[in-house]
Amino acid sequence: MEWSVSTRKRTSLRVLFVDDESSIAELMRDELPRMGHLATICQSPGSAIEAAGKNVFDAAIVDLRMPGGSGWDVIDFLREHSPETACVISTGHGDRDAAIRAIRMGAYDFLPKPVSLFEISNVLDRIAEKKALQNRAIALETRLQRAEGRSDLVGSSAPMQRVQKLIDRIAPTDSAVLILGETGTGKEMVARRIHDQSDRRNEPFVAVNCGAIPENLVESELFGHRRGAFTGADSNRTGLFEVANGGTLFLDEFGELDRAMQVKLLRFLESGEIRRVGDNEPAHVDVRIVCATNRELQQMVQRGQFREDLYFRINTFEIYLPPLRERLEDIPSLALHLIARHLKRDSVPETILPPETIRLLQAHSWPGNIR
Predict the structure, then answer these.
(1) Residue 276 to residues 67, 194, 320, 359: CA-CA distances in angstroms?
(2) How far is CA 195 from CA 54, 168, 244, 293, in A?
(3) Would you say residue 37 lies in a domain?
(4) What is the dihedral of CA 303, 308, 312, 315, to 10 degrees?
(5) In which domain, by residue range, is 245 found?
(6) Nearest residue to 221 via CA among 190, 249, 193
(7) Which of 302, 212, 307, 230 has its CA nearest to residue 265?
(8) pLDDT in tens, 141-179
(9) How many domains is the chain partitioned into structurally?
(10) β-strands 273-274, 283-284: how paired?
């Protein structure tokens, strides 16, 4: 095996490497982490199948011929139990028939021995890029599903100018952000504006309402799960943390998370690692966290309902969004914006709203705010 490999930054994958040759196994035990990946090294089909039964892998590099079994057994197991794992066949006994069989079985690639570290690095880079594109597609689908009925951040009042100045200051950083405000004040739009003005703008923005997920499914939704982790887990699931990898995860109403989930969120903020439900191996993800709530978190901390260490960790920057009744001067521009959107136009003339209509709108208390 040749020793040349680039050390540029990569997306981290969970890699199962299977080869009975001790020298190769030990080499990859060192080299895969140097490439930025989490490695599980096995030297027999049985131990590989056991590892695959306990963990979820993004990629598997499998030697075909080993004492005590065949690499095909590992591939068969992965196809049945972890179809999203990209399988790469590697063998010194490979021929055209083996390559054809590998492709027919859905293998991602076929690498004849001797395999260079560069070839392994390259194929893992391609798998990582494919995974990133899949995550972006999921994020885009989520974004499109949430787009209808969404209000843009509109308003030039003094409170909204302060909000925009905070966004301008916060967005270039990579710190966690806490957005406070009543329901309907536009917390998700502020989170999206932070994302769009950050260096992560071309990566996924994933929004989730923590209060809308059944308590017993929150962990699976956020972190994912492996097949068989619980009743009804018929297949592996990618969690929203992994979908948002490289981008921003917006946790709306995160004050609804129970204490157990608060601990898991704190662990991620401290380590950058998550663990799928039923998985033994952690995975590193690069995600900026933006949280929002309409609850009084400080009071919840004092009552023991919310972890103080998590509160301070997530509250690196705080943005307060005022209710509509505290920025009545924004109502005309908001009304014009909503009319234009309803008519599917870029803008409408200000004269479309008579002064008496504006006065009536400004006299209303707007308990639901902009929603």
Answers:
(1) 32, 28, 33, 54
(2) 35, 11, 12, 18
(3) yes
(4) -40
(5) 149-322
(6) 249
(7) 307
(8) 655 555 543 446 788 889 999 999 999 999 999 999 999
(9) 3
(10) antiparallel
